[in-house]
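Instructor's aside before we start: the two examples that follow are unrelated to each other. I chose them only because their records fit on one page, so don't look for a connection. First example below.
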Amino acid sequence: MTVRLSSLAELQISEAAADYEKKQHQLGLRFLDCVEAAMRDISLHPEAFRRLRGNIRRIMLDVFPWGLLYTRVPEGIRILALIHLHSDPKSWEEYLD
């Protein structure tokens, strides 16, 4: 199944990777590897991850305290946003509507 990033998710992932890379050499690449692994898992098992509201689901990244919000669309899967798992869940509301 095709998995595509929204422009917002793409920006959020790029910024988070850059921040990790500033903290430690190669950490940004490890973060991106985890994002890619999560996207692969979504493509293989889109219904396997926690449903938050309606058709919006969340997968948590391995190692890093982040998750991806996604939904099924006619073309496949759309990643809506990257969310920090230690943030207030109410801050995710804008992505759930």
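Example two begins here.
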Amino acid sequence: MKDTNLIMTTATRKLFPTLGLAICMFFAAQVAKADNYVFSINNFGQVGNLGTVTTTLSGNNILVTVSTSPNYVIHGAGVGFNTLPGFTGITIDTINPASIFSADLSAHNFDGFGSFADSVASNQSTAQARASNTNAVSFLVHTTTVGGFTNANQINDFAVQIAPLDANNPNTGFARSTLDVGVNPTGTVPEPASMLLLGSGLIGAAASIRRRRAKK
């Protein structure tokens, strides 16, 4: 019995590093739920990236954070976005700053970049946005589709009405997002099914150890 216990203890110790690695991979997958985009295309002759968008999976919802590059502001139509096909019943809340932006769930044309189904619109004119340096907004997007959102990239198409902060620069217009490949080389994150499979494997391994101990 003593030798058997020793063998079981040794086997268990050998299994622990594998379990530990699997657990680390599991929680790393849980964290890796964000995608990053840049406003790299615009229709008013500006050069370079005019801002960034980060989408983060929060439960079954997606948190969207938009920031302009220094010396640009958001105004007018604000930020428009499209979800992937199949998601319905879109709602928006937790808008910050709520004193400037509000949810608009009707489609709008962002000049030069087509129609965007939903948006957070600004109540500021260009002059007002410049005066308050309104350069960021965040909001939470929900869907009534069964299961909700499962991946941050299920909202991946954005446009913004934007203007230079400098009032002496008369150029204003719209910009559209593209995936920031420098931050997201593959643009993918682990699917929930993969994480469920990993979790099931961990549970199975633990149960196997308990059964072996019980038989001895």
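The two ends are 8 Å apart (CA to CA).
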